[in-house]
Amino acid sequence: MSHHRFIVCLAGPTASGKSAATLALAQYWPIEIINVDSATIYRQMDIGTAKPSPAERRTVPHHLLDIRDPSETYSAAEFCTDTLRLIEDIHSRNRIPLLCGGTMMYYKALREGLNNLPSANPGIRRELENEAAASGWPAMHAQLQHVDPLTAQRLAPNDSQRIQRALEIHRITGKPMSQLLAEQRPNQEKPWHYVTISLEPSDRAVLHERIATRYHAMVENGLVAEVEALFNRGDLSESMPSIRCVGYRQIWAYLKGEVDLPTAIEQAIAATRQLAKRQLTWLRAQPDRHIVDCLSLNTADQIRDIVPQYWNAPPR
């Protein structure tokens, strides 16, 4: 492994204490954080994304925060391009890049390289959205079943985002997405070897409590007003990735009058727990991950013991 250069990734489910751990590490090494988070990229979305505070950002430099307006999208491909550039930049300043966050699709793209699927086609997307508005997503799922049964089989009938993408790929290429993915070329040797330190709870119930407590605190701190400001802009909708963020779309539904606030809060907490479950499932499938119990009292110390073997720099 000596020919590899190591990049440490601090991953974990939502509310596992990733930010606190990075701040503790910054006291020992000259690190800069690259955020691996598809929600904190958005400006004006601070409370519900648990974005690092201005004080935390002064303590340690953070990258890939506030880089998009909520009306814009950001792909895994853009994340990879930006991250690889940042890694070089940070190294050139004799500092250490630390990837930190919970968007597993971004980690996957970095580790495995990007597939050569066609990029989005706005015309075809609109066409598919109009068809879905007329006939509903289950009908679109049935259409996918017809052209790409393998992909359809692993998607829920209401998974609009993925159904749309799979149909779009079929319309652009004339081939099922499952076939294109099966034809992928394995990655060429990459310059970086990504090491995952995974913050995982020894007791899932305690993480669930943390998620509920944290979301109630977000509501206390003005989350509803934050979402209301986005709602009142008039150019955003729940079909956009920003508003689909967990904890936001539920408040959006409340602002539309679809549910009352206590229901929206309960639904947001349930959705956040579901997200944590998916994040943990993905992490558990990572072969060589280092597991640190995110509920232990010395999480940062445990991480600090793992890191030197990759950063070959003793704590200062």
Strand order of the largest sheet: 3-2-4-1-5-6
Distance between the termini: 25 Å
- Supply the number of helical segments: 16
Which word captures the global form? Answer: globular
> Can you identify the CATH class of the largest domain?
Alpha Beta
Percent helix: 40-55%
The tally of strands reads 6
Portion in strands = 5-15%
Q: Outline the low-pLDDT stretches.
A: none
Sketch the topology as an H/E string, one letter per element.
EHEHEHEHHHHHHEHHHHHEHH
Average pLDDT:
91
CATH superfamily of the largest domain: P-loop containing nucleotide triphosphate hydrolases
How many separate domains make up the residues?
2
Indicate the radius of gyration in whole angstroms. 20 Å
Task: Quickly give the structural class.
Answer: alpha/beta
- What is the CATH topology of the largest domain? Rossmann fold
Major sheet description: 6 strands, parallel
Based on the coordinates given, report the CATH architecture of the largest domain: 3-Layer(aba) Sandwich
Description:
The structure is a single chain. With 316 residues, the protein is of the alpha/beta class. It folds into 2 domains: 5-115 and 194-311, Rossmann fold (3-Layer(aba) Sandwich), CATH 3.40.50.300; 122-182, Histone, subunit A (Orthogonal Bundle). It has helices spanning 18-25, 54-59, 76-92, 104-112, 122-135, 137-147, 149-154, 160-173, 177-182, 204-220, 223-233, 241-244, 249-255, 261-284, 299-306, 308-311; strands at 5-11, 31-35, 62-63, 96-101, 192-200, 290-293. Strands 3-2-4-1-5-6 form a 6-stranded parallel beta sheet, sandwiched between helices. α2 links the parallel β2 (31-35) and β3 (62-63). α13 (249-255) packs antiparallel against α14 (261-284).
